[in-house]
Amino acid sequence: MNAKQYVDQVFEQVVKRNPGEPEFHQAVQEVIESLVPVLEKHPEYIEAGILERLVEPERQIIFRVPWINDNGKVVINRGFRVQFNSAIGPYKGGLRFHPSVYIGIVKFLGFEQILKNSLTGLPIGGGKGGSDFDPKGKSDREVMKFCQSFMTELYRHIGPDIDVPAGDIGVGGREIGYLFGQYKRIKGAFENGVLTGKHIPYGGSLVRTEATGYGLVYFTHEMIKAKGMSFSGKTVVVSGSGNVAIYATKKVQELGGNVVAMSDSNGFIYDKDGIKLDTVQQLKEVERKRISEYVKIHPASEYHEGCTNIWTIPCEIALPCATQNEINEASANILIKNGVKAVGEGANMPSTLEATKVFQENGVLFAPAKASNAGGVATSALEMSQNSMRLHWTFEEVDSKLKDIMTNIYKVSSEAAEKYGYKDNLVVGANIAGFLKVADAMYKQGIV
Ligand code: NDP
Q1: Which of 123, 370, 397, 400 has its CA at a distance of 20 to 30 angstroms from the CA of residue 24?
Q2: Distance 10 CA to ligand 1 centre (A)
Q3: CATH number of the domain where residue 78 is located
């Protein structure tokens, strides 16, 4: 069997054995199709069944999360943790709390995490988890009760050397705090390396809050710099207004770019003079309100319903930072018609396979999520290091390590692309560079 036939056969099996999980199929397809040239050079990986093992999680945990809301009503949510691959380190990946979460979403995110974590150069395996719990509109007390119930089951599956969860959509510092408090209480031990994204006083790392957004801009900057461009004076659209979007916007503004639009799941704001980030932070991080409130404070700006319509706003650089599949083929074509030069993915898999193809065929510089948004998990790994060493690095120290890591991810991804005959194709380059390390470790550890 040649490499192409092997890849096709593995993909066929994935679709058959994981029915009704289109996001997982999409993530697997994008990765394994690009690995054909590697498998041609390494037939021993085919023989050792590396791909079949890579697409099958080592462990999948699904559990009941019962809690009582402020009206005294019993609510049942579903909790998930997928421990995907531990070839190069303990499972590592965030928790997502959003009504759309089901096993297929957790598997797509967990699978992406394997190669992303490998790309950081740090010793972390891949995992992901979450719940269909919706934190929107819930009181702090309800969020706390939910988190405590969630951790009452999860704690037995995780640990600083086993599996280290962090945040994702709907899980920020508040949720991590409640989760850690309950873990500590059950374990009777202060093992703060069990979770990352913690607040500073109990073992959090400086820069973790900013890391994914900053890292995205560091990576995108490397990519455009290689073609003689910079952020300075560029019009930029950033979707979302959560953790990744806010800190990507902050860094773009520091580098002299003009961010003119941001969104939430209801709609987007357009402020041609530049988004006032302080207002967005106040609305989203403090008051937990809708982004539509922005126009009441800045009447010269506009609010439009429909979050995906944000891609009709002309820009030279687009940074999708909200959620998966938020840019489809039609949106990609509109962006190109309006003159987009570069796309940097902040969210996980925000571009559909068709949209990615359209960008690449039209010469748009394209930074794929598993490389460009790896700054969050890389800084989480730096948080784990500080926890193990029981010390605390300064903001400048962590930021400079983050910048070095993102620059290195760009370097290894572009070199791998060139080496395997796909010059400038960072999608293929990131997949190959991330895969080689994991595959080598899996091969050397035998059939486990
Ligand atoms: P947040 O919960 O902080 O923010 C998410 C933002 O995206 C909000 O503005 C939210 O709007 C919007 N959004 C969420 N779901 C949808 C949807 N279905 N349709 C449209 N908009 C939506 O999450 P993060 O910023 O942490 O995460 C954003 C993306 O970045 C995700 O894909 C995540 O996996 C990825 N990521 C995050 C990392 C991190 O460190 N936080 C690390 C690496 C990747 P609303 O408020 O209306 O829900």
Answers
A1: 123
A2: 31
A3: 3.40.50.10860
- Facing residues of 90 across strands? none
Ligand 1 nearest atom to the CA of residue 349, by list position: 32
Q: What is the mean pLDDT of the chain?
A: 98
Whether 300 maps to a domain, the answer reads yes
Ligand 1 atom with the shortest distance to the CA of 109? 34
Whether 250 sits among the annotated catalytic residues: the reply is no
Q: Name the pTM for this structure.
A: 0.96
Centre of ligand 1 to C-alpha 297, Å, is 24
The alpha carbon of 382 and the centre of ligand 1 are apart by a number of angstroms equal to 22
- Ligand 1 in reach of 308 Cβ (< 6 A): no
CB 134 within 8 A of CB 96: no
Q: What is the mean pLDDT of residues 50-70?
A: 98
**Residue 189: HSE in the Cβ half-sphere, 13 Å Cα cutoff:** 7
Q: Is the CB of 168 under 6 A from ligand 1?
A: yes
Q: Measured between alpha carbons, how far is residue 147 from residues 24, 179, 241 in Å?
A: 26, 5, 23
Asked if residue 348 has its Cβ within 6 Å of ligand 1, the reply is yes
320 lines ligand 1 (CB under 6 A): no
Element (H, E) at 175: helix 173-187
Q: Are residues 225 and 325 in the same domain?
A: yes
- Is residue 206, in this structure, part of any structural domain at all? no
Quick check: 109 pLDDT over 90? yes
Residues 73 and 179 in one domain: yes
Q: Residues 66, 43: one domain?
A: no
C-beta separation of 342 from 367 below 8 A: yes
Based on the structure, what is the number of domains in the chain?
A: 3
Q: Residues 28-36: what's their mean pLDDT?
A: 97
- Provide the token pair at 71: 């009206």
325, 341, 367: which is the final residue of a domain?
Answer: 367
